[in-house]
């Protein structure tokens, strides 16, 4: 949910044993064992039934428990607010507005220092528990506390305010983002949010103020994708630029081919969209034609083709991976392995394909023979296997190869952590026995001391947003399509072959 700048404060099982009258029933000795067995079976059945009933009842109980927690949290917040003096509430509200003003002037709001994080956590923390207020949505009967931050612990029980966006206290040019789960078995939370219609209202209650808003746009975001490293940081960059210009950003996450088809079906007639920024898609010719026929700007991020786009910004995945191969060649490595994302559930990840192509072509150019190269492709589904099983299989294949690799490239840094763990479990030392190189330079790479190819998705998002704004303003771009530089970051997972 996004805070609009023109928002204004508002107001038996029964077991029947039938015995004939007068009859005496005596247990026969020869049946004692079987009767005992029957008793055990009945006991086991009863326990199983209780267990099954417990599983069935768990979601209901858990939701009740969470609702009770939410009610207590909101009630405690309201009570604590009432106990404050008018001057205290006024001072706290003033501090929140001043915080928003400083935030708007912060060019790097998404990467808080420790001092900035403390200031954020302390502003509007009335109860000392992190609650900054609560949100009500009448149509779906929601009353949820809103906490600072969007940690997993918060989002399992309540709504969370996204750090880096404005605090929800109103004001022109402010944009507050509040996140919450839908469809959890343990808590209803924001389930039913997609039932809202244009014109419905929701309200933030902060201290003794109520800020009421009307719904004007609705979009459902799939958290598994929006939280991916590239998408999340690119979105931050887009939001940083577009929000300052007064635009609302509505993510539309495409998970399946049906999602993509539905998006393109509705796109030409969507009059609420001023521009489209797409990330990492390689569209077919029909969809490229749809994009080309639009009268609104269409800007790509890491799109492999410029057809149908008015502008774009990307890295050169093939050239970047080629740089990695040449680097490993210079270290004296004789046999190389390339590992794609082991599980690839979406058909739209074009960067993996380009990096794999760059690896293969660069290997040939560097003089590696076919028997010197091992490529481990993605699986299309995970079945019932654990992550360890998947990576155990990968390492086992590498160990059993006619030529064991002396260096391994992975398509993304996220693959490196479980792979490194499994390599070490099977006795391989990194980098002494095998070197390991990643791609992205995300937080994982720093933690693992991983040699990797650095890219900056936040800056890609910012440049895409600036191009979009320029096109919206009728400007002609001197450089419609920009290729962003990448750089190889050397850390402790690579070394020269002795």
Overview of this structure, please?
The chain is α/β, with parallel strands linked by helices and 498 residues long. The chain folds into 2 domains: 1-11 and 31-218, Sortase (Sortase, Chain: A, Beta Barrel); 219-498, Rossmann fold. Helices cover 40% and strands 15% of the residues. It is built from 14 helices and 17 strands. It has helices at residues 32-83, 86-104, 114-122, 152-155, 223-226, 229-244, 257-266, 285-293, 317-330, 350-365, 387-400, 416-425, 443-448, 457-472; strands at 8-9, 131-137, 142-148, 159-161, 178-179, 201-206, 209-214, 276-279, 298-301, 311-315, 336-339, 373-376, 407-410, 435-440, 451-454, 481-484, 487-489. The strands form 3 sheets. Strands 1-7-6-2-3-4-5 form a 7-stranded mixed sheet. The chain is globular and about 75 Å long.
Tertiary shape? globular
Average predicted confidence as pLDDT: 79
Structural class call reads: alpha/beta
The major beta sheet can be summarized as: 7 strands, mixed
* Full CATH superfamily name of the largest domain: Response regulator
**Strand order within the widest sheet?**
1-7-6-2-3-4-5
CATH architecture of the largest domain: 3-Layer(aba) Sandwich
Taking pLDDT < 50 over at least 5 consecutive residues as the criterion, the unreliable ranges are: 1-34, 47-61, 218-227
Estimated helix fraction = 25-40%
The number of distinct structural domains comes to 2
How far apart lie the N and C ends?
Answer: 57 Å
- With helices defined by DSSP (H or I, 4 residues minimum), what is the helix count? 14
CATH fold category name of the largest domain: Rossmann fold
């Amino acid at each position: 949910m996004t805070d609009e700048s023109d928002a204004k404060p508002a107001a038996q099982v029964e077991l029947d044993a039938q015995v004939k009258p007068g009859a005496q029933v005596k247990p026969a000795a020869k049946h004692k064992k079987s009767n005992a067995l029957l008793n055990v079976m009945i006991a086991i059945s009863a326990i199983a039934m209780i267990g099954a009933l417990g599983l069935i009842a768990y979601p209901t109980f858990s939701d009740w428990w969470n609702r009770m927690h939410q009610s207590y949290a909101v009630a405690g917040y309201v009570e604590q607010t009432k106990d404050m003096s008018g001057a205290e509430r006024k001072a706290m509200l003033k501090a929140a507005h001043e915080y928003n003003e400083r935030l708007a002037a912060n060019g790097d709001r998404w990467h808080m220092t420790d001092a900035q994080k403390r200031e954020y956590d302390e502003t509007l923390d009335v109860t000392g528990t992190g609650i900054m207020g609560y949100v009500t949505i009448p149509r779906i009967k929601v009353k949820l506390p809103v906490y600072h931050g969007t940690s997993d612990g918060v989002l399992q029980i309540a709504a969370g305010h996204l750090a880096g966006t404005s605090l929800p206290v109103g004001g022109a040019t402010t944009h507050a983002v509040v996140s919450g789960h839908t469809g959890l078995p343990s808590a209803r939370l924001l389930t039913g949010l997609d039932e809202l219609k244009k014109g419905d209202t929701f309200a933030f209650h902060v201290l003794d103020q109520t800020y009421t808003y009307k719904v004007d746009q609705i979009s459902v975001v799939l958290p598994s994708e929006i939280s991916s490293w590239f998408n999340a940081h690119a979105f931050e960059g887009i939001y940083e630029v577009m929000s300052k210009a007064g635009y609302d950003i509505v993510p539309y996450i495409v998970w399946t081919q049906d999602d993509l088809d539905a998006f393109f079906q509705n796109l030409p007639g969507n009059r609420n969209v001023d521009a489209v920024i797409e990330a990492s898609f390689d569209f077919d010719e029909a969809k490229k034609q749809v994009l080309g026929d639009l009268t609104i700007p269409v800007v790509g991020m890491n799109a492999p083709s410029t057809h149908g786009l008015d502008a774009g910004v990307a890295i050169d995945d093939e050239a970047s991976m080629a740089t990695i191969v040449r680097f490993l060649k210079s270290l004296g490595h004789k046999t190389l392995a390339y590992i794609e994302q082991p599980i690839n559930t979406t058909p739209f990840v074009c960067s993996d394909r380009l990096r794999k192509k760059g690896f293969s072509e660069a290997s040939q150019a560097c003089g590696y023979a076919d028997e010197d190269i091992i490529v481990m492709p993605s699986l299309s589904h995970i079945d019932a296997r654990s992550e360890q099983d998947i990576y155990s299989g990968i390492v086992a294949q590498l160990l059993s190869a006619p030529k064991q690799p002396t260096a391994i490239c992975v398509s993304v840094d996220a693959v490196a952590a479980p792979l490194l763990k499994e390599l070490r479990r099977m006795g391989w030392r990194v980098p002494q026995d095998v070197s390991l190189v990643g791609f992205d330079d995300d937080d994982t790479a720093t933690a693992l001391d991983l040699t990797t190819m650095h890219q900056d998705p936040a800056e890609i998002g910012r440049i895409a947003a600036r191009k979009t704004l320029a096109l919206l303003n009728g400007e002609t771009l001197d450089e419609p399509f920009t290729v962003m530089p990448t750089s190889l970051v050397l850390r402790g997972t690579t070394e020269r072959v002795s």
